[in-house]
Structure formats: C-alpha cells, structure tokens
Amino acid sequence: MKKYALQYTMIVCGALISAISCNLFLIPNHFLSGGITGIAIILHYLFGLPIGMQNIVFNIPILYIAYHFFGKRYFFNTILGTFLYSLFIDLTSFLTPYTPLHNNPMLSAIVAGVISGIGFGLILRANANTGGADVVAALIRKIYSYNIGTMIFALNCLIVLCGLCLFNFEVAIYTLIYMYIMGEVDNRIVTGFNKRKSIMIVSDKSGEIAEHIMHELGRGVTFIEGEGGYTHTKKRILYVVITLTQLSKIKEIALKIDSKAFFIIANASEVNGKGFSYN
Q1: Global pTM?
Q2: How many CA atoms lie within 13 A of 201 on its CB side?
Q3: Spatial contact of 141 and 43, defined as CB atoms under 8 Å apart
Q4: Local structure of 202: helix, strand or coil
C-alpha cells in the first residue's frame, strides 16, 4: 500500500512541476516542446486553444498502445499521468507572465529543462508517463533497451522540425537545448544519481581476488568460464558491480594480488537487486 501511495504521489508532484515549468518558461518565451504537447503548444500559439484540453484529446489514440503493450497497470498510470499533466497545465496557466521572467532566453531554456526534467523524471520513475512520445519511447525501450530520456529527445526533435517553418530558427535552437537538458535530467532521475560500475577482471588468481572483494567491500561476485583465444587456456573471469566510490579500492585489491590482472570497466546505467535497490 505504501509503495502505491509513494508511486502516485510522485506522479502528482511530477505532473504539477512539469506543468508549472511549461507555463512559467516555455509559453512566455514562445519555446516549443515535443510530442503531443508540442503540437498542442503550436496550436495554442496560432489559435489560442487551451493546451491541456488539446493534450487529452490528442492522446486518446496513444492510450491504446499503452494498454496493448504494457498492461492494465501501465495503462492506468498513463491515463493518470496524462490527465493530471493536462489538467495542471490549464489550471496553472494563470502563472504565465505577460513577459518572460528573464531577458536571457538561454537561461530560461536551461532552467526549464532542469525543472521539466525533474517533473517528467518523477513520473517516469513511478512507471507512468504523460502520453504522446513518452509511450512510444517506453515501447522502444521495452524492445531495444535504450534510455527513455534519449529516445524522447530524438522523437521530440521531429516535432520541433515540423514547427520550425512556423517560428524562427532561434526559438528552435533554444527549444532543442531545453529538450536536451530535460532528457539528461530525465535519465538521472529514472536511473538514479548514484553511479554504478560493472567490472570484468581476467586473472589467474580470480578466486583470491573474489574473496577479498567479498570480504572487504561486501559485494557479491560472479564467475564466468572463459578461454584464451590464443593460448586456449581456461580462465575464470570475475564479474562484479560496484558503486563509483568503490572503484579505486577494487582496482587496488586486484592489482595487489595480481599485477598483471586485466580490467574491463563499464558504466552500469540501471542496477536492480540486493545491495543496490529495495525492489
């Protein structure tokens, strides 16, 4: 019960934060946006139509994708995120100033990207979205395992290019900056700010290295059976996932035991399991 309460609190807070960012920074500066909301914003600039109401209407076909590919729970969260975000955009439209809050559009784009990224990141972390390109990006991530923030940015660029013929080039550039920053913050919120590293160690003393890692760092290790391509010598490859702060320590342990140990160190963008999450 507490899990769902936290989940829906994140959706509500994320939708409100994103809506406020839209009305405080995007609309006054005549910035664009991506996805269905981007189309709604363009029509708002041209005809004065309410953005939130348009967003709800345009997202109706998208809801089928959410239901068909992700199940009832995701479908419900999509409806909730889309409705709340659209509702909050119209309810907070009074916050839109007649002139931009800052004369520097670059600063407005950066601030809007950070705030919107936090808002949308909270929604995505709660396994929900605001419809439109978010659902398409989630589908691509489900199939190809790409970062959602990166996919949303790529899909949104197509919408901006379509609106470029209606607005000047400068606005499009600031919009791309805003969306890039939003996508980066999205990724940080969804995957977490704590950096993880995955390490593969090839050594003739992998067993001894593993014992010290488990004893000194408290990290579990996995052995992978390998064979040298040139010598055809059987080797046990040690695989371990650690936090960024443990990287120097694990290298010190391995090199102290075997100065000829071979390392492969890579970023681990999402780690789920004992010692890294509570799921």
Answers
A1: 0.75
A2: 30
A3: no
A4: strand
Give 230-266 as a DSSP string.
TT--EEEEEEEEEEGGGHHHHHHHHHHH-TT-EEEEE
Q: 109-140 as b/e, with b when 16 or more CB fall inside 10 Å?
A: bbbbbbbbbbbbbbbbbbbbbbbbbbbbbbbb
Report the length, in residues, of the chain.
279
> Please, what is the end-to-end C-alpha distance for the chain in angstroms?
14
Query: What is the enclosing helix (H) or strand (E) of 77?
Result: helix 60-91
Token pair for 1: 């019960």
Tokens 């996508």 appear where? 183
Per-residue pLDDT tens digits for 69-126: 777 887 888 899 999 999 999 999 999 887 777 789 999 999 999 999 999 999 988 8
Gap between the Cα atoms of 275 and 213, Å rounded: 14
Gap between the Cα atoms of 136 and 138, Å rounded? 5
Q: Are strands 262-268 and 234-243 parallel, antiparallel or unpaired?
A: unpaired
